[in-house]
Amino acid sequence: MGASAAFHLAEAGVSVVLLERGALAGGSTSKAAGGVRANFSDPLNIALGARSLDLLADFESRPGAPIDLHRPGYLFLLSTQEQMSDFEAATALQQSMGLPTRMIDAAEIRALNPLVNVDDLLGGAFSPTDGHCTPEAVVHGYAAGARRHGAVVITDVEVVGITLSGNDIRSVQTTAGEIETDVVLCCAGAWSPTVAAMVGVELPVTPYRREIAITEPLPAGEPWASLPAALPMTIDATTSFYHHREGPALLMGFSDPSTAPGFDLSRDPAFADGLGERIAGRAPAILDLGIASGWAGLYEVTPDHNALLGESRSISRFLYATGFSGHGFLQGPAIGEWLRDRVMGRTPAIDVAALDVERFASGQLRPERHVV
Asked: Which of 61, 90, 321, 351 has its CA 20 to 30 A from that of 200?
């Protein structure tokens, strides 16, 4: 979010300083699975995802960096009638917005991903233009592009305070000194509430640990030899188990609903057993692969699993983009455009007013159902 906003603002001629507490992409972004999609239930998320996909497709020319973008599609596996009805409605909505998403049967699921056990599936939802890319490459590409347009990017510096004069921002206090500014963009992911609290703004964002595993390289022989090179990002809607190709291996994970909130990034010793149970039921051949590596990262979750996008109504020019509940990386390109337009007083191409944090006070929640 921050790197995208810095690039889009600097490209438009705005003076920008991007502050990063550690290394670029060193928070949640580099630990993401890298999925990029427009397959959502909320029309705003569909629009933001679709716009971001367009920007990612053009990334090598603007800002100008390779990001290893693959677009083999997203495949949701559906085993209940409730899931079928939900995705049928979402598919119709996506099609009305110009996307090629379609419902498919068990035979097509097997053709797209021969690893999947389809015995208990009622069908699937396939969005062929979705895919995955390398998260840290996107961050570094945006940061380098921002620098070329005159932005200042400072790493290993922490924001420790924001100075106000009345309700107006005057400066940002950091461990490297003071930066005078009257505009602050809060794009700190799971750590956003700490930054927002510096100006008395409450952002209902809760961190949850999520883990990812990478298998050893796929062996020769079946079923691996006939596995499609364009293997979709495949997600079991019932168990949240997902997997996609990652170079010569597979990347996989799942969301454990019993995980306690917090910033703990230690590996859960029970993760492997939980992952194995889900693999055994949905793609048992993967059990033959060894695990080469893995890590844990943070989801920044809001009460309705939808983003917080807006500008404070009490503090002048304090903007926030956080709480994406697992779909922040994939929406980063479009959010950078939205932040640019909001800062510059332009009318954004996508109206995200319904995602303002004030929705929680008014009770107008906006649940996103297609989260992992």
From this structure: 351
